[in-house]
Amino acid sequence: MHIPDGYLPTAVCAAGYAIAVPVTAFALYKIRKEGDPREKIPKASLLTAAFFVASWIHIPVPPTSVHLILSGLMGSILGYFAFPAILIGLFLQAVMFGHGGLSTLGVNAIVIGLPALVAYHIFRLRTLFGEANRTGTGIFGFLASLCAIGISTGLFVVLLINFIPADMDADDERNAILALALGHVPLMFIEGAFTAFVTMFLLRVRPQMLIGI
Amino acid sequence: MKFVLDQHAHLNSPIHRWDPRFKLIGFILLIFAFSFVSHLYLLPAMAAVTITIFAISRIPISFILARLRYPSFFLFIVVIMLPFISGSDVLFNIGILDVNKEGCEAALLISVRFFCILTLGLILFSTAPLIISIKAMRSLGLPSILADMTLLTFRYLFEIGNYLHQMETALRLRGFKARRFSRRGFNTLAWLGGSILVRTYERSEWIYKAMIIRGYGRDTKMAQVGFQAATRDILALGLLVLLATGFVVVQVLT
């Protein structure tokens, strides 16, 4: 779900940065507001690397396999650190593997990072059932990731179809949007289930990881 | 410790010697100017500029080609599809499929822009150690939280990658096969992900204590020193600004 360099016009790339900068500033403001961030920085950084690595786990979906984005899980565990973490993850993927791009970094950060913040707020609703409630944690973990991937898919498809430099027939465009969106539906459920299992695992093994880093 | 991205940072070329702050500004401007181009006749000029900068950088072509392989797959899908689904001016037919002129032009534009921008990005970040590039960004206004997080993430990425490799090997040795989808297998993979997060979290607590002992947070101005621009750095930036402006002006006026 990373838009590579060269696909989008400059205006859209610039708009991506224009939105990503204030969102990053807002996330950093919220992080600083919670107290001295120095203690949290090593935790957030290493967990960013861990999420990066965990996204290399391939889930078998015959006849192929998929790798996960984990933005919903990142939002659930990292809170407001999720947006800078995703920004850094995307930057490293772009410069190390050529996955995504530097000109589209702002756009990709919005497509994946903003839904992670939505996921954070959805996951916080689990406290309605009590912080130690396993079912509530699983359900809201599932919903957080489902919504995060759903929103990302919507943004990704709209951007790709509307701004790719090609004249497409209206019917073809509609079909392409539908095909791309439908192709991501299984991923939404897989990510949701993965987040539910991981959050329930963490609740049993390291519950303090679920109440903020 | 030497990282994949830093393996050619020690070479000696004008681009390696260029002040990282000016290099960053110049390359980013050129990347945005390239993404602004939509006239096909500007593509050869874009490719020529990219090839020239690549030649000056002295980075082996194998390094660039190895990094182009994975993203090229996505490009391939788009380039294959566009001539058939985009446009109405038919160039020729392949069986029942029409190959359209507009689609071919769009595919060519996307491909050249993609390869040029990606190559520039790789040159930018592989002609200096990443720590230097991050310090340059820090001196240009990158918030300290982002700078620290980027460096720490990069520092521990491959170590945590080794955790995953070890744990996957342990799973395989115990007979786990991730070829078919099953609820139990899926649960195991989720626990694998969860275990990596727990191990990393515990490790980060020790790392923070070690960082505090070494004076973490006491000297925040450290990242802003160490760069000194010479006249040639400013001239090189001027050249790239001129090139970027040239592409934008020609694109707008023609």
Helix content of chain B: over 70%
Largest sheet of chain A: 2 strands, antiparallel
Whole-number radius of gyration of chain A? Answer: 17 Å
Report the average pLDDT across residues of chain B. Answer: 87
Low-confidence stretches of chain A: none
Name of the CATH class of chain A: Mainly Alpha
Q: How many E strands of chain A?
A: 2
**Span between N and C termini of chain A?**
27 Å
- SSE pattern of chain A, N- to C-terminal: HHEEHHHHH
How many distinct domains of chain A? 1
Give the number of helices of chain B. Answer: 9
Structural class based on helices, strands and sheet pairing of chain A: mainly alpha
The profile of the biggest β sheet of chain B is: 2 strands, antiparallel
Textual characterization of the structure:
Chain A is mainly alpha-helical and 213 residues long. Chain A has one domain: Arp2/3 complex 21 kDa subunit ARPC3, CATH 1.10.1760.20. Chain A contains seven helices and two strands. Chain A has helices at 10-33, 40-54, 71-78, 82-97, 105-124, 134-163, 170-205, and strands at 58-61, 64-67. Chain A has a two-stranded antiparallel ribbon with strand order 1-2. In chain A, strand 1 and strand 2 form a beta hairpin. In chain A, helix 1 runs parallel beside helix 5, helix 3 packs across helix 6 (134-163) and helix 4 (82-97) runs antiparallel to helix 5. Chain A starts with 9 loop residues before the first helix and ends in an 8-residue tail after the last helix. The mean pLDDT of chain A is 89. With 254 residues, chain B is mainly α. Chain B folds into two domains: 4-138 and 226-253, no CATH class; 143-224, no CATH class. Chain B is 71% helix and 4% strand. Chain B has nine helices and two strands, in the order H-H-H-H-E-E-H-H-H-H-H. Chain B has helices at 14-17, 20-36, 43-57, 61-85, 101-126, 130-139, 144-173, 183-213, 231-253; strands spanning 90-94, 97-100. Chain B has a two-stranded antiparallel ribbon with strand order 1-2. Chain B is flat. Chain B starts with 13 loop residues before the first helix and ends with a helix. Classes of the chains: A mainly alpha (213), B mainly alpha (254). At the A-B interface, helix 1, helix 2, strand 1, helix 4 and helix 7 of A face helix 2, helix 4, helix 5, helix 7 and helix 8 of B.
